[in-house]
Amino acid sequence: MSDIPSAEPNHNALNIQGLCKYFFGLRALDGVSFSLSRGEILGLIGPNGSGKTTLINVVTGLLPATSGQVFVDGTEITNKKPYQIAYAGLARTFQTIRLFRELTVLENVEVAAVSMGLSRKAARQRAIEILEEIGISRWSEMLASVLPYGLERRVEIARALATQPKFLFLDEPAAGLNEDESEELLQVLSSIPARKNLGMLIVDHDMRLIMRLCNRLHVLNFGKTIGMGTPEEVRKIPAVLQAYLGKTVAGV
Ligand SMILES: Nc1ncnc2c1ncn2[C@@H]1O[C@H](COP(=O)(O)OP(=O)(O)OP(=O)(O)O)[C@@H](O)[C@H]1O
Ligand SMILES: [Mg+2]
């Protein structure tokens, strides 16, 4: 899938065209365009404050776009309500974890499936399958409030998967994980897009994870695109190196 915005939105992809989000004078997103196909893993990277979370918030309807358009499989979803966008096939996780702390792991995932209109019975079945798939079924009955941090992150991903998305956005899933946990996460995430036929967009500062997981990268700085391509290509782009100068981005 090309990064060049097409006049005709692709019918089997997420297309973002000229997306802008201004907070008063601040241009948090300034004309960002890219596409994400099913089965693909796209890394959205950039220094702190470059607009990554804002992009996820605008695309999923949490914040209105200032201008630009978003299409899912050719249907425009720009500035629709979050629940309409969820029904259109987009799911996300949050940079700050948001679980129902008084519910069990299984119930947390079940609630997400029920929110998409499934019966309790069907939702439970789906939740059981997803927990199995991402390797956390042995913690099903544990209360979310007592889960170790690394597992909370995985429950968030399970909740997003329970809505059976066409496109999944993960905002810093490896934040705060140690090296072993990050390695486990890599294994879990790498098989999801092909198995579920979904496109995955991942934001993270863990460059080791990003470089190994992603098929393509899109790099933002001050809300603008400063590079895109394969991980190999992106690590050679001068503007990208410049943006990361002095930061710990071993992989770049
Ligand atoms: N609701 C808001 N109101 C005003 N400014 C905002 C708001 N949300 C984000 N910003 C600003 O927009 C810019 C982009 O922020 P954003 O959170 O998207 O960055 P990020 O790339 O996700 O950074 P990080 O890697 O630190 O999570 C920052 O300058 C931020 O301060
Ligand atoms: Mg962020």
Commentary on this structure:
With 252 residues, this protein is of the alpha/beta class. The chain has a domain at 1-79 and 199-252: 3-Layer(aba) Sandwich (Rossmann fold). The chain contains nine helices and ten strands. The protein has helices at 52-59, 82-88, 105-114, 120-133, 149-161, 179-196, 207-213, 231-234, 238-244, and strands at 13-23, 26-37, 41-45, 67-72, 75-76, 90-92, 167-171, 199-203, 216-221, 224-229. Strands 6-7-8-3-9-10 form a six-stranded mixed β-sheet, with helices on both faces. A four-stranded antiparallel β-sheet has the order 2-1-4-5, covered by helices on one side. Helix 3 (105-114) crosses helix 4 and helix 3 runs parallel beside helix 5 (149-161). The radius of gyration is 18 Å and the shape is globular. Bound molecules: adenosine-5'-triphosphate and magnesium ion (MG).
Decide which structural class fits the backbone. alpha/beta
Q: Mind telling me the C-alpha Rg? A: 18 Å
- The CATH architecture name of the domain at 1-79 and 199-252 reads 3-Layer(aba) Sandwich
Beta-strand fraction estimate: 15-25%
Question: What percent of the residues sit in helical stretches (DSSP H or I)?
Answer: 25-40%
Number of helices: 9
**Please, what is the average pLDDT?**
92
**In the CATH hierarchy, what is the superfamily of the domain at 1-79 and 199-252?**
P-loop containing nucleotide triphosphate hydrolases
Tell me about the biggest sheet? 6 strands, mixed
The hetero molecules present are:
adenosine-5'-triphosphate, magnesium ion
| Euclidean distance between termini CA atoms | 23 Å
Strand line-up across the major sheet? 6-7-8-3-9-10
Q: How many E-type strands?
A: 10
CATH topology of the domain at 1-79 and 199-252: Rossmann fold
Under CATH at level 1, the class of the domain at 1-79 and 199-252 stands as Alpha Beta
Order of H and E elements:
EEEHEEHEHHHEHEHEEHH
Cα shape: globular
Low-pLDDT stretches: 1-7
